[in-house]
Design brief:
Layout (H helix, E strand, L loop, with lengths): L1 E6 L4 H15 L8 E6 L14 H9 L2 H18 L15 H13 L1 H18 L6 H10 L4 H9 L4 H10 L8 H15 L13 E2 L2 E2 L2
Parallel strand pairs: 1-2
Antiparallel strand pairs: 3-4
Helix pairs in contact: 1-9, 2-3, 4-5, 5-6, 6-7
Amino acid sequence: MQIEIWSDVVCPWCYIGTRRLQTALADFPHADDVEVVYRSFQLDPGAPSEPTETVAESLGRKYGGGPAAGQQMIDRVEAVAAEEGLVFRLGQAQRVGTVDAHRLLHLALEDGPATQRALKEELLAGYFTRADNVADHDVLRAAAATVSLDAARVDEVLAGGAYADEVEADIRQAAAYGAQPADTFRQVLQRAWDDSHPTLQTVGGDADACGPDGCAV
C-alpha cells in the first residue's frame, strides 16, 4: 500500500503531519507493508532563492505588527509542534524558496522511498530545528550526504534543471491538505488496507478447505 503526501520542507503543518503519520504507523499492524512517497508542494512559491528576512519578520510584514507579532503567530504553531515532540526554531528560520530541495527529493526517490523519506526528514529537521537555509546549495549537499546520495549526481542536479518538470507536475496536482490528527491517519490506513485485502467470505463448509483459489466443494 502506497501513501503519497504533497508537502513542503518549510511547511510547519507538513512536519507536524509527518510526525502524526509516524505515530499512526507505529500503531498500525501492517506498517511494514506501507510505502510513503513525498510529492512536491510549495507553501510560499514567491519566496526568494536568497534569504532577505526571517519567517517572523515575513509574517509580521504580511499581517502587520512587525517581527514580534510574527513570532506570536509562530509561538502558537510551535506549541502544537511540541505536542508531537518537535522543538521548532521557526522564528529564526529564513524565508526561502524550496524548488531545489524538491528536485533533490525527486533524485532521492530514484534510490527508493526509504532514501527519499530520510532526506525529507533531514531537510525538515534542518529547517525547523536548526534554522538551516534549505535554499543554500551547500546545505542541500550536506543533507544529501547524510542519506548517501551520490555527490557528483547531487552537484549535477543542483547545477542544472533536472527534475524541475517533475516538481512542477507535482505542484499542479497538489491539493490543500490540512494537518490531520493521528486518529484520522489510523482510520485511513485501516480503510485502505481493508480495501486492498478483502476478507474471504465463506458460507458453511470447512474454513480450512478454503485457499487463495477458493473453497473445495
